[in-house]
């Protein structure tokens, strides 16, 4: 008993306790000190030194609530940002860890980012202007400088966000180096709210450009109005929210001036316009020249295709195509159409012998590209994003190891 008691006394005097797991000892940031300043032109990297610990979760967020996307290695030894830091911002990074026995750890770092030494500012202007539109209206983004290489386009596209309520799947398309269009997979829902915002302020695009502040845009949609003109039967059917509301006899383009097939979007409306053939390349004095006062003109292409009143061709409406490419109808029907449709409503032509509507450059022909081809216009396609076609800006950097 004495021997046993001696052993017990010895254990009490020198307890064999394990050293507590300390996450702070395991985690290192690449050149960033707590309360210090980081270079916004470089990615943020977090590593675990090992010693029985690994990273399990990371969140990095700035003072305005923007999260920085990142990736975590499969073994939990390294996390790195995949989206650029913003210049002139302050960040809070929270790192969760665990050791081999599952004991959790935590480390928090706060730091600021300085301003780049040399930069040009990339400004973005969203379009169209705020207001109510038809369900076919694309959102546009016009850049103040050309962005040509894929890495820079990815940086821009990740920062441009379009949300709708109800939510729909959609994607950006690079029309050219300064212009992007955004559309859903299908048309917008009726009576939806669409907002476009930019998170590019202070973000590095490339060595020459950093993102500037951008005014957000809010649009709403009205009823789903779709006009379908069949050039072969010389009739236009107008639908509201899927219901047929009017059937109109029309005339479309005659041989040599055939109306373009495909989906177009209402661009603007003019109660009166003087139409002259010289503006579309028809020589004055030729057999096809004209100079006519036209009422209730609804424009669908910038090259001069309208839906309008054509009282001079009433005898052919519903039976023959005699126009120079426009869709003509009676004055009464044209006035009704003018007051029924709005910018962004859909005007589709089928059965014409003419060319197909171009996707870009002559109005909004965006809907003439199928979804697979539209997605190919996104710089994010194939960059490892979860779903580049949906194109949702990453809202969280909370990532688990990849397995």
UniProtKB/TrEMBL annotation:
Q: Which positions fall inside the L,D-TPase catalytic domain?
A: 225-350
Matching SUPFAM superfamilies, A to Z?
L,D-transpeptidase catalytic domain-like
* GO MF, one annotated term: acyltransferase activity
Q: Which domain of life is it from?
A: Bacteria
Where does this protein have compositionally biased stretches of type Basic and acidic residues?
Answer: 387-403
Disordered: where is this region?
380-403
The scientific name of the source species is: Streptomyces sulfonofaciens
Pathway assignment reads: Glycan biosynthesis; Cell wall biogenesis; peptidoglycan biosynthesis
Q: Which Pfam families match?
A: Big_10, YkuD
Alphabetized UniProt keyword annotations: Acyltransferase, Cell membrane, Cell shape, Cell wall biogenesis/degradation, Lipoprotein, Membrane, Palmitate, Peptidoglycan synthesis, Signal, Transferase
Q: What is this protein called?
A: L,D-TPase catalytic domain-containing protein
Alphabetical GO biological process terms: cell wall organization; peptidoglycan-protein cross-linking; regulation of cell shape
Gene Ontology cellular component terms for the protein in this record: extracellular region
Catalytic residues, chain numbering: 308 (proton donor/acceptor), 326 (nucleophile)
Signal peptide residues are none
InterPro entries the record matches: Big_10 (IPR041280), LD-transpeptidase (IPR050979), LD_TPept_cat_dom (IPR005490), Transpep_catalytic_dom (IPR038063)
- Record Gene3D superfamilies: 2.60.40.3710, 2.60.40.3780, L,D-transpeptidase catalytic domain-like
